[in-house]
Specification:
By secondary structure, the chain is of the alpha/beta class. The chain has two domains: about 25-130 and about 265-290, Rossmann fold (3-Layer(aba) Sandwich), CATH 3.40.50; about 135-265 and about 310-325, Response regulator (Rossmann fold, 3-Layer(aba) Sandwich). The protein has eleven helices and twelve strands. The protein has helices at about 1-20, 40-55, 70-85, 95-110, 135-150, 165-175, 195-205, 225-235, 250-255, 265-285, 315-325, and strands spanning about 30-35, 60-65, 90, 115, 130, 150-160, 180-190, 215-220, 240-245, 260-265, 305, 310-315. It has a six-stranded parallel beta sheet, with helices on both faces. The chain is elongated, with a radius of gyration of 24 Å. The model is unreliable at about 5-20 (pLDDT under 50).
Length: about 325
């Protein structure tokens, strides 16, 4: 009888050990999402996706980075996160040249790093999750051609040195190259502060004659509403405004006819897929974390995951307004 009791206890102990060993997730697993300008609605949406995946997996999600556009503060947040030895880091490389050493240091420390939203292609990150920004720029370029008839001057608002916006601008340039009468009059660096877009738009909108700006293109998520405000104040509804991303203000301005359209990304998807991808890399790590998987025909990782884009204008803005109202 004692022998049988011991055997049963041994089996139970083995079952407990086996069950515990097979438990994949734990709140002790900590994943970081790091970016700059975190106060923007765009990034709050990305955080919501990141947190949703963390809740499903039962792991810990942490968010770090400055509320304003501050690349050095983003680097400091990355370095601080690395020091805690997290399970993985999802980062938007606001300035690839600045954060690349930090990304490489994380990989060297055995921490999986995936970029999202804005890539650092020269770094050791595993891969990129986000928008095909070149194609998104071409999508926007075709819209500007359609609205201007392929003629006129276009002013761009961007953040200099940010890889995703450089790619978007290149997409516009590709489309415009087929329309010699459509000129890029200016590419203005907002330095990550939408108030600068407001001030510069006011200076540009009063220009007449050959210097008249016929279309304003905002390559970041914050400038569109500022430029739309200038159009409204100056009653210059003959000017086209193309924005980027969606929030309530942008949707309202499309509905009011102040913004023609906006190119929509999917930051929620980026955050959601990003955490799950990091979890996979943490639990099933590659033999060599620092390998350039883009050069490997048998890579276990993609080169990049395209989360998609779409165009919102007055024809379909009602759908997005309904979704925004339902999310409140």
């Amino acid at each position: 009888m004692k022998a049988m009791k011991k055997a049963v206890l041994a089996v139970l102990a083995l079952a407990v050990a086996f069950t515990s060993g097979c438990q994949r997730h734990s709140t002790k697993e900590v994943y970081y999402l790091i970016a700059s300008n975190m106060a923007l609605p765009y990034w709050q949406t990305a955080v919501a996706g990141f947190n949703r995946a963390a809740a499903q997996y039962g792991v810990t999600a942490k968010v770090a980075g400055p509320d304003t556009h501050d690349v050095q503060a983003e680097l400091a947040a990355l370095q601080k996160a690395i020091a805690t030895k997290p399970s993985g880091i999802l980062i938007s490389a606001t300035d690839p040249a600045v954060v690349q050493p930090g990304i490489n240091a994380a990989i060297s420390a055995g921490i999986p790093v995936i970029t999202m939203d804005s890539d650092a292609p020269g770094s050791s990150r595993l891969y990129f999750i986000g928008t095909n920004n070149l194609e998104a720029g071409r999508l926007g370029g075709r819209r500007i051609v359609a609205k201007t008839g392929g003629r006129g001057n276009v002013a761009f608002f961007t953040i200099a040195g940010q890889h995703n916006m450089d790619e978007r601008l290149k997409g516009f340039e590709d489309v415009f190259s087929g329309y010699p009468n459509l000129k890029i009059a200016e590419v203005f660096d907002t330095k990550g502060d939408a108030r600068n877009a407001f001030d510069r738009a006011q200076q540009l909108i009063v220009q007449t004659g050959p210097k008249k700006i016929d279309a304003f293109v905002c390559l970041d998520s914050a400038s569109g509403k500022q430029v739309a405000d200038i159009v409204k104040r100056n009653q210059a509804t003959d000017r086209e405004v193309l924005a980027w991303d969606i929030d309530q203000g942008t949707l309202d301005d499309i509905n009011a006819g102040l913004i023609d359209a906006t190119v929509v990304q999917r930051p929620f998807t980026m955050g959601y897929v990003g955490l799950k991808a990091l979890d996979e890399a943490f639990h099933y790590p590659p033999k060599q974390l620092s390998k350039d998987y883009a050069q490997d025909a048998f890579s276990i990782y993609p080169v990049f995951v395209d989360t998609g884009t779409s165009l919102v204008d007055k024809n379909n803005v009602g759908v997005y307004l309904s979704e925004a109202a339902g999310a409140k």
